[in-house]
Amino acid sequence: MNAGKGKPVLLSGIQPTGRLTIANYIGALKQWKALQATHDCFFVLVDFHALTVPQDRAEFQRRCLEFAALYTACGLDPEKHTVFIQSHVPQHAQLLWILNCMTHMGELFRMTQYKEKAGRSAAPVNVGLFDYPVLMAADILLYGTDLVPVGDDQKQHLEFTREIARRFNHRYGEIFTIPQPYMPDMGARIMGLQDPSGKMSKTDENQKNYIALLDAPDIVRDKIKQAVTDPGKTIRYDPAKPGISNLMTIHAALTDLSIESIQADYSGKGYAAFKKDLAEAVIEFLAPIQKRYRAAYSDRDALMSRLKAGALKARKRSSIVLDKVYDALGLVPGGPVSKTRRERMDG
Ligand code: TYM
Question: CB 208: neighbour CB atoms within 10 A?
Answer without folding.
Answer: 17
